[in-house]
């Protein structure tokens, strides 16, 4: 199991936007923010952080409600969590615009950040995520064969009740089914399960899902009169959807969008860290100075 934080990084408690985030920071150069998904924490980026820190100041928060960050009762809308992240940069004295990379729920936050505050984002990387307002709601429609878990996680109280005491079982089954063999050790799975153990930690995780319809409405409002002009890279899990065009949904809303398929399952940063470092470095070089 890779250590946390990786060598060269320190972890700080950073007040921002009415809450406090646990944030790992390391490296030198332009600002680069990594936003993890559910059910993970900032340690999801542990394999790519040292490589990216060679050319960037890398900022890795535990999202609101997860890991060592505070778990407030509200504020999980993706635009508000973008305010969490941009406020953390301000508190750390780090400049914007930043290259922003998000995976899963973190990709939803990264996209909301770019749509809500486009001058903050020099380049945007979205890893294996559906986006509220841009196809997620249709993919959630179980009557048409959609993914059941989104609606289930949005239900109040019930998911916490059923997952409580079964965290490690869930993590083991889910992570190994959605990744290439050998990606997650028993220690890795235990670390993630511990981060979500108990109903309060589980609630903080499921809260990210309970705002998705509001997030979709906000996306549609913003994109009605706005086009993203920063370079955008969207990455699909190539082993699960080898023929997907991950950029298709964004082409009507972005002037410079590229789609790639990673040689991985869902957990790109942990399955193919060198591939991802190269992809992020490439798009970072394309970001126009501001």
Describe the structure in your own words.
- With 290 residues, the chain is an alpha/beta fold.
- The protein has a domain at 9-131 and 215-286: 3-Layer(aba) Sandwich (Rossmann fold), CATH 3.40.50.1820.
- Helices cover 37% and strands 18% of the residues.
- The protein is built from 12 helices and 8 strands.
- The protein has helices at 49-52, 78-92, 105-116, 136-139, 148-154, 158-163, 167-177, 186-195, 199-206, 212-223, 268-271, 273-286; strands at 9-16, 19-27, 31-35, 57-61, 98-103, 121-127, 232-237, 257-262.
- The protein has an 8-stranded mixed beta sheet with strand order 1-2-4-3-5-6-7-8, sandwiched between helices.
- Helix 1 (49-52) links the parallel strand 3 (31-35) and strand 4 (57-61).
- Helix 2 (78-92) crosses helix 3 (105-116) and helix 7 (167-177) packs across helix 8.
- It is globular, with a radius of gyration of 17 Å.
- It comes from Pseudonocardia zijingensis.
- InterPro entries: AB_hydrolase_1 (IPR000073), AB_hydrolase_fold (IPR029058), Epox_hydrolase-like (IPR000639).
- Keywords: Hydrolase.
- This is Alpha/beta fold hydrolase.
């Amino acid at each position: 199991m890779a250590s946390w934080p990786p060598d060269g990084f320190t972890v700080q408690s950073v007040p921002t936007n009415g809450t406090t985030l646990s944030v790992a920071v390391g490296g030198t150069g332009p600002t680069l923010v990594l936003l993890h998904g559910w059910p993970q924490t900032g340690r999801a980026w542990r394999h790519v952080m040292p490589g990216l820190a060679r050319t960037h100041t890398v900022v890795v928060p535990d999202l609101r409600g997860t890991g060592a960050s505070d778990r407030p009762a509200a504020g999980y809308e993706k635009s508000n969590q973008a305010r969490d992240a941009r406020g953390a940069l301000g508190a750390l004295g780090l400049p914007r615009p930043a290259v922003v990379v998000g995976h899963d729920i973190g990709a939803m936050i990264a996209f909301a950040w770019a749509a809500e505050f486009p001058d903050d984002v020099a380049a945007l990387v979205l890893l294996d995520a559906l986006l509220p307002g841009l196809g997620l709601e249709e993919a959630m429609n179980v009557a048409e064969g959609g993914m059941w878990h989104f609606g289930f996680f949005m239900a109040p109280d019930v998911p916490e009740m059923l997952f409580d005491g079964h965290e490690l079982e869930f993590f083991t089954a889910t992570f190994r089914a959605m990744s290439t063999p050998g990606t997650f050790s028993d220690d890795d799975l235990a670390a993630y399960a511990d981060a979500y153990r108990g109903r309060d930690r589980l609630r903080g995780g499921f809260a990210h899902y309970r705002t998705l319809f509001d997030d979709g409405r906000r996306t549609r409002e913003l994109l009605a009169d706005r086009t993203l002009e920063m370079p955008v890279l969207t990455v699909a899990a190539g082993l699960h959807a080898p023929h997907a065009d991950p950029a298709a949904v964004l082409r009507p809303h972005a002037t410079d969008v590229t789609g790639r398929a990673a040689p991985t399952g869902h957990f790109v940063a942990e399955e193919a860290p060198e591939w991802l470092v190269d992809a992020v470095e490439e798009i970072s070089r394309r970001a126009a100075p501001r």
